[in-house]
Design goal:
Distance between the termini: 67 Å
Order of helices and strands: EHEEEEEEEEEHH
Radius of gyration: 17 Å
Shape: globular
Strand order of the largest sheet: 2-3-4-8-7
Number of helices: 3
Structural class: mainly beta
């Protein structure tokens, strides 16, 4: 008789609070403030430390642009990530998963092709993946329960909520 002992290692999670310097009353206001509104799939993520803060750089393959310049790929910078086996996060903000598709509402950073989400956690919405990327068949799916805009948009198609 053999005995196998498995010890689960839980990662330490460090959660910080944030006060967002831009706030929107409606999804329409957030969309109007975006320099780039696009659907894209997260291809890769990498966390890094800058000034004692952990950030995640997500490379996004853009499939459709609704507002702003056309891009094949963009880099979206999120506060938080994983470093040395520990998770650093901002309350209310979720970092998109690799391989999943999202609607991104973004503002440009100083480096060309780099962006951040508008309104903190209100700039990313999960959408259904389909074989053909079309605003008529992509639907908003649950992603961040802290984003009250998501509740109004859930299960609506992108063509119902966006204008080019």
């Amino acid at each position: 008789i053999g005995i196998c002992i498995i010890k689960a290692h839980q990662k330490t999670v460090h959660t910080s609070m944030a006060s967002w310097n831009e706030s929107y009353a409606t999804f329409e206001e957030a969309y109007a403030s975006a320099q780039l509104a696009a659907v894209g799939t997260v291809k890769s993520k990498e966390s890094y430390e800058l000034h004692d803060v952990i950030f995640t750089r997500a490379v996004v393959e853009v499939s459709e642009v609704f507002r702003g310049d056309e891009y094949d790929t963009v880099t979206v910078i999120f506060t938080g990530g994983e470093k040395d086996g520990e998770i650093y996060e901002l309350a209310e903000q979720k970092i998109p998963e690799t391989g999943k598709t999202y609607l991104f509402l973004l503002r440009a950073l100083d480096t060309p092709g780099e962006f951040r989400e508008v309104g903190g956690y209100r700039g990313v919405y999960r959408v259904s993946e389909t074989n053909t990327y079309s605003a008529n068949n992509m639907v908003i799916k649950p992603f961040n329960e802290d984003n009250d805009f998501e509740g109004e948009l859930k299960n609506k198609t992108l063509s119902q909520i966006l204008t080019k």
